Amino acid sequence: MFPLFFAHSALHCVIYLFHVQHQYYQPGHFVIGGITSQFLVPVFTSIDFEEKPKETSDDEYAALPKNYQHVLSLVFAVNEVNENPNILSNITLGFQIYDSYCDARMTYQNTLNLISPHRKTIPNYKCGVEKNLIAAIGGLDSETSSHMASILDLYKILQITYSSFTPAVCEKDHISSLYQMAPSEEHQYTGIVQLLLYFKWKWVGIFVTADDKGETFVKKLTHQLSRNSVCIAVTERVLTHRGFSGFALIEKYQNMAESLSKTNVDVFVVNSDKNTKTNLQWLLLIGKMMNVSPINKVWVMTADWDFSSETFHRDLDIQNFHGALSFAIHSSELQPFLRNILFNNSAGDTLFFNEQHELEGGFDIINWVTFPNKSFLRVKVGKMDPQDPLGSDFSIDEKIITWHQSFNQVVPLALCNDHCHPGYSRQRKEGKPFCCYDCAPCPEGEISNQTDMDNCFQCQEDRYPNQEKNKCIMKKENFLSYEAPLGISLALLALASSATTALVFGIFIKHENTPIVKANNQNLTYTLLISLLLCFLCSLLFIGRPQLLTCNLRQTAFGIIFSVAVSSVLAKTLTVVLAFMANKPGSKMRKWVGKRFSTSIVLGCASVQASICIVWLWTDPPFPDLDMHSLPEEVIVECNEGSANMFYYVLGYMGLLALVSFVVAFFARKLPDTFNEAKFITFSMLVFCSVWLSFVPSYLSTKGKYTVAVEIFSILASSAGILGCIFSPKCYIIVFKPELNSKEQLKKRNK
User: Fold this and answer.
1) Is omega for the bond preceding 139 within 30 degrees of 0, making it cis?
2) pTM confidence score
3) Which helix (H) or strand (E) covers residue 282, if one does?
4) Which residue in 5, 46, 98, 543 has the fewest CB atoms around it within 10 Å?
5) Which residues, other chains included, contact 555 with Cβ-Cβ below 8 Å and sequence gap of 6+?
6) Strands laid side by side in the 133-137 sheet
7) Is residue 280 within 8 Å of 253, Cβ to Cβ?
């Protein structure tokens, strides 16, 4: 098929605005029109309507060889339909193809030619053979498509455009006859963001032409990037040649090339419309000619990018784009274009038009591999399809990506600063974009377990941060166990003290008929020894993992048994005092002297303590509990006392008994008697009170198992103080000085 050049018609009604030098025509029952972009033409001279415009000679046109395939594709498709009787029986398709010359004036002119009679440029004029135009295909860019639509939509002629429709050119929602054979540009923005996020590129530049299309691209992409925490480090707006002389434009390009070479931004997103891609390549070429430092970047380009579509491809250095990434529309064949009709493309994808007359489909992700001889490969490395389920709508195989040589086949970094590693959190720098930050160590008790976390966080209650503060470690249980050295030591000490008490009790039983044993109420002595034995043994309730039974018993048993012991000491002291008072002539104290009085003292005092413990267990009993917060690296397994007040009531009552015993014994210490225990009781109560007075601050200042150890030690120390002060002198006499344990010696000493 060859270009047809027509002479002037004999009809005087025909007016030629411009002589159309490149057109392709084939008659048919129905004609499909086409506006391609095969040629570039110098800027047309202005029309003053005083003389015929000057025609452009053939040698002034610059051809775009790749775009010639658009003509061949339409011719091939029409012939295929005509040669297949099963498609359109007894009907032939024709075509009429003009060129836009990438110029608005010629696009309008040739769109009018499509709707005008053959060889005439007069719309709505019928003369000669009528041309039945049913649809038009074009154009290659948004501007051409918009110019065509402004005319075709008036005649309700179906228009199929194979380019993305840029909102900056024209809003197409009101154009009912326009169908777009490319997915919505919004999907490209989404794909760009997904690509940047996949490689964790958060510090990127944008390269556009300084026009409305470029500003719209910047505005829409900026909105998407900011929503996904990606910063725009720099926006380069390349100027067009309009309004600049050759030298001024070269100077502008040189300055921009120097700026690009010096910036630390390694990833640039390029809006690859026809102006931007041409200007970018010329900018890089001029930078090389002016000996500007190499501009080695990762170029992320929209779906319009293609080296072979450049007129001056042989003069350009495409090595700058080695390793670049771009989007490409899934390839498709010419099919019936009807609303709500689904069809499959050559790749087997199901395609359909949405409500905006846009083709619902996805994009391939292309890796550009260039060679020194100006050849290149387009390697598909992934895809983006918004119709796929979430999670599978974006995929990429980074192993097969070839990066620019300057990156040594390592994924380039696009960050304002280095990553904040686990154990650190990001802190914004004042006056800098949100992608620029300092890395601050996590505070005590908090961790960060991922890279570039905005905030550190606390571990779960049963875990604590490791030293690097990048993970949580399970807390160990903290309680006084029999396996721990401290627990074993206290348990052995309690058993040894119990054995000592049992030995003393055995000595007293064996020598129960001796004067020293009978003195000061023998039954009280036995009661005191048994209670001391139980005091030593009850300390074992505090060792081991707390259970409900042991929690209920440990404090109540300790309180009651100790009350029995202290009340026995008090009863012994009062017995001595009453005995001396009863020996006075006419004393009425004789009736109080005896076993009944001492027994009443012991039972009465112990009953009060038992009542306190019963109320405690009834109202708010102790229970096993876990303290997660007192120790940073351990969980304290403890007995929660339930009511802390009741615990201190038990201690307070026991202290009151000890204080009364101490006061009474202190005043009775000088009473004349060989076996008077008042002095020893005074010392024992002094030890007892000292131990428990020091217990309170120690108990409150320690945590975990050491709190329990303090209470056990206080129990053992106070019990040992009573046992040692009261019974060690007697045992010494019984065992080592038996001659002093006799009535004769007693009478001798009384004389």
Assistant:
1) yes
2) 0.60
3) helix 274-289
4) 46
5) 613, 622, 639, 641, 647, 650
6) 23-26, 93-99, 30-36, 133-137, 158-161, 178-180
7) no
